Automatic annotation (TrEMBL), chains A, B:
Residues 19-118 form the Fumarylacetoacetase N-terminal domain. Its cofactor is Ca(2+); Mg(2+). Its EC number is 3.7.1.2. Keywords: Calcium, Hydrolase, Magnesium, Metal-binding, Phenylalanine catabolism, Tyrosine catabolism. GO terms for molecular function: fumarylacetoacetase activity; metal ion binding. InterPro entries: Fumarylacetoacetase, Fumarylacetoacetase-like_C, Fumarylacetoacetase_C_sf, Fumarylacetoacetase_N, Fumarylacetoacetase_N_sf. This is fumarylacetoacetase. Substrate binds at Y128, R142, Q239, Y243, T348. Ca(2+) binds at D126, E198, E200, D232. GO terms for biological process: homogentisate catabolic process; L-phenylalanine catabolic process; L-tyrosine catabolic process.
Length: 416, 416
């Protein structure tokens, strides 16, 4: 963390400092989507940079940067991404660098770029790893039995839907589904009246594991390329009716939103912090020690159409009970294999200081929250945009995710 | 169904008559996997056949047959697959056909071919659509509350794991996991003692649907390329401890086995039969009428090492409560999109005449079944091979799936 400043000016509140250098996929005009790295308000066009020879030291084929997803790059493993970041950090901080000479050719303003889903996602798994979230939601769904007996023994998780994961900025259609009106015995079919967001982090898998061979907690982070912000949109009324006994289905699978920039674990390394004490002690395959959580400041804002946003949650990823090593080791302990592009999300992150979804904030839709424009919300309304942000900071060093955004569209085209 | 016999002799009990012609992916020697069509004991090498001009009428690029999965072929839609089957049926039943002349070049004995996973599977969804199964399993997991109130109103489903779906013949490692011993309050970690199979049908999606746009029951079958046999291996003791509140996870994600031949819906068309009466009547988006189920004879056999098999279940797919149109319409009614290669499985098929898993057959491991070698089973033991078969028959016409097989391996290599 003793990097000099980059020759490219980066605002002190930018998430994309030279300490970060997250990977994404972008396009401009009619050109094909390709790999880029964010720096300040710019994107380093990695395809052009590599073609011009800037990356030659990295020993990586130019074609991996020309691909419309990060998967081929991720498949090279963490050491390759580490070399690329180090080369870029050096070239961004040395005024006589090749990259500086070529700046006009390889730097693209973010303002004129379109960002794409950075990863071709294979399997998506959603954990339930925040104790505050599990307890508070449990109280609403099962007042007599909020935290189930298994929760502190294993990182509860379920498989989610990959096809409907979209990049930040994609509008979200309000889903229809079956709901059971209060006191009724027969469900009705209607647009959800309880559309919610869920503040999560997602970990992107960058290495295949072998079917039948578990990955230990010690090895787990070798399998992780990086981290994203993730909004797992949820329809609470649909969920309540459908979720037993096999878990959420339509209430979650209509859409999830991903931030466009994948922040490497290397960039997050200096922001490690110990997680909550685990009591009872987990079984041996889940035991970890030391500072394994990430001290990331997270926030959620709701922005109704044409008015300014209201921040409704500020919390930290440091509170997550089960860390990513434990999640990954648990996921594979059955022999289940991981593939490059798989996504492991934390589940809603709530902490002692903030709640990562409206279900908790409004106590199941019973206590509306007030926005700065004077309107109230229990759940999301047409035109509401949900904006999630995350960053870590220490001294002058800031590393962040940017944003994941999505606006609610009522009356989807369902003529088909 | 008035096809003449094929010039290639096909045994009367073969699943792969000229009425069937299922698609798969095979290889021989060191050659690359490519598309084939099963006929009797042979495979039509579609790559070679197309290169030699046999398929020229079909208007399909040769490259789709050279691919190691069926996905590019499926992407062309059901009409293309229909044209290909019709051309093959004609050429297989006319002795002066081009295919007959080229038989030596394009027919590969199944005995010397290796069969591969036929589809690159995107998202895999498992339904719970057999009333007999849901009721009997519900009684074991929730004696006071077997069939939950939502079951007859919607096709309950959950998202499963794609990465661990393997082709028939792949050995299955006994998974480890957490289980709660009877009467204990703290789980232990061990290999599952309750390893089970689940007899299912899988429907393979052959057409993309649009995010946010539901597919109606009327349109649903346009999106289905074909059907396979599917064994959704399950670890019941792990499942019992982990499954609340978000559904099964490690208890299912260690492996599922797929039959290598994908039988088109066209080949199954004449075996339609009405499903069970649905009472209460479903909501409008789930209403269907007519003969929409498939009268497929299904069986499960267990074959311990070195002794002969015992058939432990004979039932029919006709008993499935929710038909595939309803499953698909429900799946997309939230706006969830389908992609070519997605798999929708029925969940365990049990009927009034047979149970599709050991959990039911042994009443949760309490009543062992006896095999013909005199040994007993509650759950699967090391070396046990599970063999599932399925076919439909009417008069002389037989259309079937072949088999999906898998043997249990204890003590998996878990040195990693």
């Amino acid at each position: 963390m003793t990097l000099p400043a980059s020759w490219l000016p980066v605002a002190s509140d930018s998430d994309f400092s030279v300490h970060n250098l997250p990977f994404g996929v972008f396009s401009t005009g009619l050109e094909q989507p390709r790999v880029g790295v964010a720096i300040g308000d710019f994107i380093i066009d990695m395809s052009t940079a590599a073609q011009l020879g800037v990356m030659s030291e990295a020993g990586v084929a130019v074609s991996v940067f020309q691909h419309p997803t990060l998967n081929p790059l991720m498949s090279l493993g963490r050491p390759a991404a580490r070399r690329i970041r180090e080369i870029l950090q050096r070239q961004l901080t040395q005024t006589d660098s090749f990259l500086h000479k070529l700046a006009a050719e390889v730097l693209v303003p973010q303002a004129i770029a379109q960002l794409h889903l950075p990863v071709a996602i294979g399997d998506y798994t959603d954990f339930y790893s925040s104790l505050e979230h599990a307890t508070q939601v449990g109280q609403l769904f099962r007042p007599n039995n909020p935290l189930l007996p298994n929760w502190k023994h294993l990182p509860v998780a379920y498989h989610g839907r990959s096809s409907s994961i979209v990049v930040s900025g994609t509008p979200i259609n309000r889903p229809n589904g079956q709901v059971l009106p209060m006191g009724a015995e027969v469900p009705i079919f209607q647009p959800t009246q309880a559309l919610d967001y869920e503040l999560e982090l997602g970990f992107v898998i960058g290495k295949n594991s072998k079917l039948g061979v578990p990955v230990s907690v010690e090895e787990a982070e070798e399998y992780i390329f990086g981290c994203v912000l993730f909004n797992d949109w949820s329809a609470r009324d649909i969920q309540r009716w459908e979720y037993q006994p096999l878990g959420p289905f339509l209430s979650k699978n209509f859409a999830s939103s991903l931030s466009p920039w994948v922040v490497t674990l290397d960039a997050l390394e200096t922001f490690r912090v110990a997680g909550p004490e685990q009591n009872p002690e987990p079984l041996p395959y889940l035991r970890t020690s030391g500072a394994l959580n990430f001290d990331l400041n997270l926030e959620v804002a709701i922005k109704p159409q044409d008015v300014s946003e209201t921040v409704v949650c500020r919390t930290s990823a440091r509170y997550v009970y089960w860390n990513i090593r434990q999640q990954l080791a648990h996921h594979t302990v059955s022999g289940c294999n991981l593939r490059v592009g798989d996504l492991l999300a934390t589940g809603t992150i709530s902490g002692p200081d903030g709640s990562g979804c409206l279900l908790e904030l409004t106590e199941g839709g019973k206590k509306p929250i007030r926005l700065t424009d004077g309107t109230e919300r229990t759940y999301l309304q047409h035109g509401d945009e949900v904006i999630m942000r995350g960053h870590a900071g220490r001294g002058d060093v800031r590393v962040g995710f940017g944003e994941v955004r999505g606006s609610i569209l009522d009356s989807p085209e369902s003529e088909n």
